[in-house]
Design brief:
By secondary structure, the chain is mainly β. The chain has one domain: Trefoil (Acidic Fibroblast Growth Factor, subunit A), CATH 2.80.10.50. The protein is built from no helices and twelve strands. A hairpin with a 5-residue loop joins strand 4 and strand 5. The radius of gyration is 16 Å and the shape is globular.
Protein backbone atom coordinates (compact mmCIF):
# COMPACT_ATOMS: atom_id res chain seq x y z
CA UNK A 1 0.00 0.00 0.00
CA UNK A 2 1.24 3.46 -0.79
CA UNK A 3 2.23 5.68 2.10
CA UNK A 4 -0.17 8.52 2.82
CA UNK A 5 1.90 11.67 2.91
CA UNK A 6 1.31 13.75 5.98
CA UNK A 7 3.30 16.74 4.88
CA UNK A 8 0.51 19.31 4.77
CA UNK A 9 1.12 21.73 7.58
CA UNK A 10 4.36 19.99 8.53
CA UNK A 11 6.56 21.54 5.88
CA UNK A 12 7.03 25.23 5.14
CA UNK A 13 8.93 27.26 2.61
CA UNK A 14 11.64 29.70 3.60
CA UNK A 15 12.35 32.16 0.80
CA UNK A 16 15.94 33.39 0.63
CA UNK A 17 17.54 36.12 -1.44
CA UNK A 18 18.85 35.37 -4.90
CA UNK A 19 22.46 34.36 -5.25
CA UNK A 20 22.48 31.35 -2.94
CA UNK A 21 24.42 28.33 -4.12
CA UNK A 22 22.67 26.50 -6.95
CA UNK A 23 19.94 29.12 -7.26
CA UNK A 24 19.78 31.41 -10.24
CA UNK A 25 18.90 35.10 -10.25
CA UNK A 26 15.46 35.71 -8.85
CA UNK A 27 15.05 32.08 -7.75
CA UNK A 28 13.77 31.43 -4.23
CA UNK A 29 15.14 28.39 -2.39
CA UNK A 30 12.90 26.37 -0.10
CA UNK A 31 14.08 24.30 2.85
CA UNK A 32 12.45 21.08 3.95
CA UNK A 33 11.20 21.89 7.44
CA UNK A 34 10.48 18.78 9.53
CA UNK A 35 7.46 18.77 11.84
CA UNK A 36 7.79 19.83 15.46
CA UNK A 37 6.83 16.31 16.57
CA UNK A 38 8.14 12.99 15.34
CA UNK A 39 7.91 11.75 11.76
CA UNK A 40 8.53 8.57 9.84
CA UNK A 41 11.26 8.75 7.19
CA UNK A 42 10.28 6.67 4.17
CA UNK A 43 11.46 6.02 0.63
CA UNK A 44 8.62 6.67 -1.85
CA UNK A 45 10.25 4.73 -4.71
CA UNK A 46 11.18 1.29 -3.37
CA UNK A 47 7.85 -0.52 -3.57
CA UNK A 48 8.15 -3.28 -6.20
CA UNK A 49 6.39 -5.70 -3.82
CA UNK A 50 3.95 -3.05 -2.56
CA UNK A 51 5.91 -2.60 0.67
CA UNK A 52 6.68 0.95 1.74
CA UNK A 53 9.81 1.00 3.86
CA UNK A 54 10.65 3.34 6.74
CA UNK A 55 13.88 4.05 8.60
CA UNK A 56 13.81 1.63 11.54
CA UNK A 57 15.76 0.88 14.72
CA UNK A 58 15.60 -2.96 14.74
CA UNK A 59 13.43 -4.23 17.62
CA UNK A 60 13.79 -0.85 19.33
CA UNK A 61 17.43 -1.55 20.20
CA UNK A 62 19.06 0.67 22.82
CA UNK A 63 22.57 -0.26 21.65
CA UNK A 64 25.08 2.29 20.42
CA UNK A 65 26.35 1.25 16.96
CA UNK A 66 23.16 -0.71 16.28
CA UNK A 67 22.82 -0.87 12.49
CA UNK A 68 19.74 0.98 11.26
CA UNK A 69 17.56 -0.56 8.58
CA UNK A 70 14.54 -0.05 6.37
CA UNK A 71 11.48 -2.03 7.44
CA UNK A 72 7.78 -2.05 6.55
CA UNK A 73 6.30 1.20 7.83
CA UNK A 74 4.41 0.95 11.12
CA UNK A 75 5.38 4.13 12.96
CA UNK A 76 1.74 4.99 13.68
CA UNK A 77 1.03 1.62 15.27
CA UNK A 78 1.11 1.24 19.05
CA UNK A 79 4.53 -0.47 18.77
CA UNK A 80 5.88 2.00 16.22
CA UNK A 81 8.51 3.87 18.27
CA UNK A 82 11.45 2.28 16.35
CA UNK A 83 10.27 4.28 13.31
CA UNK A 84 9.55 7.60 15.01
CA UNK A 85 12.25 10.25 14.53
CA UNK A 86 12.65 13.77 15.91
CA UNK A 87 14.65 16.32 13.90
CA UNK A 88 16.54 18.39 16.47
CA UNK A 89 18.15 21.61 15.14
CA UNK A 90 21.94 21.64 15.40
CA UNK A 91 22.93 24.82 13.56
CA UNK A 92 23.41 25.60 9.87
CA UNK A 93 25.92 24.82 7.16
CA UNK A 94 26.83 26.08 3.70
CA UNK A 95 28.67 29.13 2.48
CA UNK A 96 25.61 31.24 3.23
CA UNK A 97 24.43 29.22 6.22
CA UNK A 98 21.71 28.07 3.89
CA UNK A 99 21.06 24.53 5.17
CA UNK A 100 19.67 23.68 8.59
CA UNK A 101 21.58 20.89 10.32
CA UNK A 102 19.77 18.29 12.43
CA UNK A 103 20.36 15.48 14.88
CA UNK A 104 17.78 12.81 13.96
CA UNK A 105 16.79 11.17 17.26
CA UNK A 106 14.75 7.99 17.68
CA UNK A 107 11.89 8.38 20.16
CA UNK A 108 12.45 4.91 21.63
CA UNK A 109 16.22 4.57 21.97
CA UNK A 110 16.98 8.28 22.41
CA UNK A 111 19.93 7.78 20.04
CA UNK A 112 20.60 9.46 16.70
CA UNK A 113 21.29 8.40 13.13
CA UNK A 114 24.99 8.47 12.38
CA UNK A 115 27.86 6.90 10.47
CA UNK A 116 30.56 4.70 11.92
CA UNK A 117 33.36 7.15 11.22
CA UNK A 118 33.60 10.93 11.17
CA UNK A 119 34.86 11.12 7.59
CA UNK A 120 33.84 7.94 5.78
CA UNK A 121 36.18 7.38 2.86
CA UNK A 122 34.32 4.55 1.16
CA UNK A 123 30.71 3.95 0.21
CA UNK A 124 28.65 1.21 1.81
CA UNK A 125 29.32 1.97 5.48
CA UNK A 126 26.38 1.16 7.73
CA UNK A 127 24.12 3.87 9.12
CA UNK A 128 24.09 3.25 12.87
CA UNK A 129 22.73 4.90 16.01
CA UNK A 130 25.07 6.93 18.19
CA UNK A 131 24.91 9.35 21.09
CA UNK A 132 23.35 12.51 19.71
CA UNK A 133 26.27 14.61 20.97
CA UNK A 134 28.58 12.83 18.51
CA UNK A 135 29.54 15.02 15.53
CA UNK A 136 29.01 11.94 13.33
CA UNK A 137 25.23 12.38 13.84
CA UNK A 138 24.78 15.68 11.98
CA UNK A 139 22.72 15.71 8.78
CA UNK A 140 21.06 18.25 6.52
CA UNK A 141 18.10 17.85 4.19
CA UNK A 142 18.65 18.66 0.52
CA UNK A 143 15.35 18.96 -1.40
CA UNK A 144 15.27 17.50 -4.90
CA UNK A 145 13.42 20.58 -6.13
CA UNK A 146 14.84 23.55 -4.28
CA UNK A 147 11.86 25.72 -5.16
CA UNK A 148 9.44 23.23 -3.56
CA UNK A 149 9.62 22.42 0.18
CA UNK A 150 7.34 19.39 -0.32
CA UNK A 151 9.73 17.66 -2.71
CA UNK A 152 11.62 14.49 -1.92
CA UNK A 153 14.96 15.12 -0.24
CA UNK A 154 18.37 13.59 0.41
CA UNK A 155 19.85 13.22 3.88
CA UNK A 156 23.43 14.41 3.52
CA UNK A 157 26.10 13.74 6.12
CA UNK A 158 27.61 16.97 7.43
CA UNK A 159 31.16 15.91 8.35
CA UNK A 160 33.56 16.84 5.58
CA UNK A 161 31.02 18.88 3.60
CA UNK A 162 31.84 20.61 1.27
CA UNK A 163 35.56 19.76 1.20
CA UNK A 164 35.43 16.00 0.62
CA UNK A 165 33.13 13.64 -1.22
CA UNK A 166 29.53 14.24 -0.13
CA UNK A 167 27.82 11.22 1.44
CA UNK A 168 24.07 10.61 1.62
CA UNK A 169 21.98 7.99 3.39
CA UNK A 170 20.79 5.31 0.95
CA UNK A 171 19.06 1.95 0.81
CA UNK A 172 21.61 -0.78 0.11
CA UNK A 173 19.49 -2.17 -2.75
CA UNK A 174 16.57 -1.20 -4.94
CA UNK A 175 14.06 -3.77 -3.68
CA UNK A 176 11.46 -3.32 -1.00
CA UNK A 177 12.40 -6.42 0.97
CA UNK A 178 12.39 -6.12 4.76
CA UNK A 179 14.79 -5.55 6.30
CA UNK A 180 17.10 -3.57 3.99
CA UNK A 181 20.43 -2.14 5.15
CA UNK A 182 20.94 1.62 5.26
CA UNK A 183 24.37 2.77 4.11
CA UNK A 184 26.27 5.84 2.95
CA UNK A 185 26.50 6.45 -0.80
CA UNK A 186 27.98 9.19 -2.93
CA UNK A 187 25.24 11.81 -3.18
CA UNK A 188 23.35 11.71 -6.48
CA UNK A 189 19.89 13.21 -6.77
CA UNK A 190 19.01 10.78 -9.58
CA UNK A 191 19.55 7.77 -7.28
CA UNK A 192 16.10 6.78 -5.99
CA UNK A 193 17.66 4.66 -3.22
CA UNK A 194 18.68 7.89 -1.46
CA UNK A 195 15.49 9.91 -1.82
CA UNK A 196 13.27 10.33 1.24
CA UNK A 197 10.07 11.88 2.43
CA UNK A 198 8.33 12.34 5.76
CA UNK A 199 5.15 10.58 6.83
Amino acid sequence: MGRTRKLAGALAAIGLAAGLAMAGPGTARADVIPPAGWAEIFNPYLHAQNNTLCVDDPSGSLAILQKIQLFRCHGYDSHGSPQRWFFEPAGTTGIFGNFNVYHIRNTGSGLCLGLTTNVPNTAGRDVVQLQCTDTATEWFLVPLDRSNPNSDFQLEFLIGYPFVNSWCMAASNFTDSSPTRLVNASCADTDTSQLWNLG
